[in-house]
Design goal:
This protein is an alpha+beta fold and 226 residues long. It has two domains: 63 residues, no CATH class; 159 residues, Beta Polymerase, domain 2 (2-Layer Sandwich). The protein is built from nine helices and seven strands; from the N terminus they run αααβαβαβββαββααα. A five-stranded mixed β-sheet has the order 1-2-5-4-3. Helix 3 packs across helix 5 and helix 4 runs parallel beside helix 8. The longest helix is centred in the N-terminal third of the chain and has 41 residues.
């Protein structure tokens, strides 16, 4: 009996690394495919399915980027002289000062100068990210979205912008400093967050983010002037 138990234990220790490798490999390829499918559904008549609680829960558990990864990337951007600001859900949490939910990706607004984009790409490549889906949505304040992903399925969505074009005209009111994991990070101002969210159809998480922003951040900081 003991011999059989020992053999099973040894077999388990041999198989566990193989199973872990298979799961990580599957994650590497399945998450980009799932993202493509998700984006396709998001623009289709079946988009209502994505708002089901079960789908949202599964998405937050399978595809997310942790605080430690965000901080490591932001430190690397600062060290490389990259002009980048945290946007999206992580940007809202930075303004609030603590994490309110799990985030599917890290949204970054960056200056679209060639030198800045080159530095940004080098930082992401050194961190193990590869360039992926490229989206262009005419009519939005940030029409170009560049998606980068690493082998663990962590996603960074980069949105290059041209300063001097609305709504990126008054730089003093555009950007702020927020807190992620107790560390200061550059992020979009509350006012710019609200302005950008008003430019497209809101998802469930967008509504929650804006409500959290209005609840935790002083109205004078996010309300439009006048």
């Amino acid at each position: 009996m003991r011999g059989g138990a020992s053999k099973r234990t040894v077999l388990a220790w041999v198989l566990l690394p193989a199973v872990a490798w298979l799961l990580l490999s599957a994650r590497r390829y399945l998450i980009p495919a799932a993202r493509t499918a998700y984006l396709g559904l998001e623009r289709s008549p079946l988009a209502f399915l994505l708002r089901l609680p079960g789908v949202q829960w599964l998405k937050s558990r399978v595809t997310y980027i942790p605080e430690s990864r965000v901080l490591a990337l932001m430190d690397a951007f600062v060290a490389a002289g990259v002009s980048a600001w945290v946007a999206g859900g992580w940007g809202v949490d930075a303004l609030i000062g603590h994490q309110t939910r799990r985030h599917y990706d890290l949204d970054l607004v960056v200056s679209d100068t060639r030198d800045n984009l080159d530095r940004m790409e080098r930082v992401l490549a050194r961190a193990g990210f590869r360039s992926g889906i490229r989206e262009f949505n005419p009519g939005l304040a940030m029409p170009l979205r560049l998606n980068w992903q690493d082998d663990a399925g962590h996603t960074v969505e980069v949105m290059p912008v041209t300063f001097g074009k609305p709504p990126f005209t008054d730089r003093e009111s555009l950007f702020s400093r927020g807190i992620i994991g107790g560390h200061l990070v550059p992020c979009l101002s509350a006012r710019l967050q609200v302005t950008l969210h008003a430019g497209y159809e809101e998802r469930v998480v967008d509504v929650a983010d804006m409500e959290a922003l209005r609840t935790h951040v002083d109205q004078a900081e996010w309300a439009p002037p006048g």
